[in-house]
From TrEMBL:
It is found in: Membrane. This is UNC93-like protein MFSD11. Its main location: membrane. Keywords: Glycoprotein, Membrane, Transmembrane, Transmembrane helix. One of its GO terms (cellular component) is membrane. Residues 1-27 are annotated as: Disordered. InterPro entries: Ion_channel_UNC-93, MFS_trans_sf, UNC-93-like_regulator. It comes from the Eukaryota. The chain crosses the membrane at residues 34-57, 69-87, 93-113, 125-147, 203-226, 288-307, 322-345, 357-377, 422-442, 462-484. Residues 1-12 have a biased composition (Basic and acidic residues).
Amino acid sequence: MRPTPPREDRCNNEATGSDTPAPPPSSGSSIRRAFLFMTILFSVNHGCTVSVLGLANARLGSVGIRQSGVLYASYTLSALFGASWIVDRLGSRSGLVVGTGLSSLYVTSFYLATAAKSAWPSLGWLVEAVALTGAAVGGVGSSVLWVSQGAYFSAASKLYSSAVGMPGEDVTSKFGGDFASVFLLLEVCLKLLSTSLIEAAGVGWRVIFGLYTVVSIVPVVFLSGIADLDPKRRGYGAVVRSALEGELAVAINNEGAGDARRRRAGCLTDNKATASLNLLLSDPKMKYLVPMPFLFGLSSAFSTSVINGEVVEDVLKDDTSAFVGLLSAVTSLVAAATSFAFGWLESRHESVHLGKGLAMSIGGLCYFSVAVQFLSYPAGSDWSLPGLVIIYTLLGISRATYEGTLRSVTADMYPDDGEGAFGNIILFGGSASTLGYVLSVTDVLRCEQVSRYCVEYSDGSVHNVLVMEVLVIVMSVLAIPSFWRAIWMFRSSQSVSEEGSDDEGSVQMSVATSPEIGGGWPLRLRSRRLNGDDAGNSEAEGLGQGDELQRLSADKEKLACYLKLAKPLRVSTREMFCARAR
């Protein structure tokens, strides 16, 4: 079948196509600069969020405990129902703006709750209503924010890899280390803000929460100005037609497959709102990857509710919660420094993925160590300041693996499905945190009297901490080998993909110096029919239907023109690749 001719000869008309969106940044330095700018703004906003979260239990008491539970429940449910859909519809850049805006409302709720508590002490219901509403909104915002960050991370990594010719896994290690370092360093500064203002200037908590509110709002304004690296939002459809995609692999293979088979392969879903769940059910690697964020969520809940909220106050007699911010800053500072070491380790062993697997194993072992120590010495009276510093240091090492290495591995494994993949990280991390809060601070594990593993909290209630400690230990034992299993499956699938990349349905053409395609990069165009694919039939009018890709000559100008005509395709890159599913 001959290709359907275009409606107008845009290949020979230089004046047309003026409405084509401007391409993303084309140089490696500009891409990295955009990523770092996003990282700084993201870190400022989220740093304010985690700073006030760490103070919730200490400053708002039982209301703060319930507020944190609502935050994590909202965070988890949003990841399961809606966050991926929002990011898919808005794009990663707009998703970052929406996410930071909603997260700033959570920070604002602390200022309003503190003000209401001071002005109307008898209206406890008002304080609780403000705090819980802010937490519900903030949970949605944090979920959207992290999914957007993951999508932006994946897009920036792919574009940078193509622009500078660096292997993709080295890029994700580099960007993961950059993100974790900047994110955690700014978190240190923001966590130390409360301690320094209280100790040095005697500032009240209302002023501190007001300052956090103002700082958290600033990134909302500037994030709208960062470079948009999402090709779907810029009108390129499934085809990125510039030097930023070093190898453009267009796989259109629907010969006898049909949508049902592609759905079974996890390549096509009807509902973006449940993209995370669809990926979890269809991709076996994800089942082995998610125990790590679940371990992080459990440990975070334990450290926030028990260590921050109870042990520190008991050991250091910290009625003003000044040392909570200081010790939390130790965790962030250690995590920032460790991120550099892990980045070096990962980049030196990318051939077998030893670096990233080893880094995540170290993180899991640190969580294991913290739980074992509290299993051995559960009471606050057993601890001293040096011992707590060791605990917060171990938490910092683990935090570095979660914020940097885990996100890097996720971007490696799911370069074309960032929304669903990072949504699962949020889903399981948030689910574990919610479970941890329920077990740590509610009446589920309340004891009648104080004993070795029944610890008295500052509000006079007695809670069992043994269950949480055992859960963290068990999850550590499960998560580490599970993560290595996911890596092995990823490597196996890569090997199979490479072996099948040169089958008889492929035609490889080398394009020398075209500015549209990129100098010297090989271009693989798979010759497959579009018959039976309604989306392809309706959208690919510029290319026609059938084996026209095989007939394209190696003439770079003509090839570049055909790629321009391919831009209206609204089929996702992942769907096109997954069309190979048998």
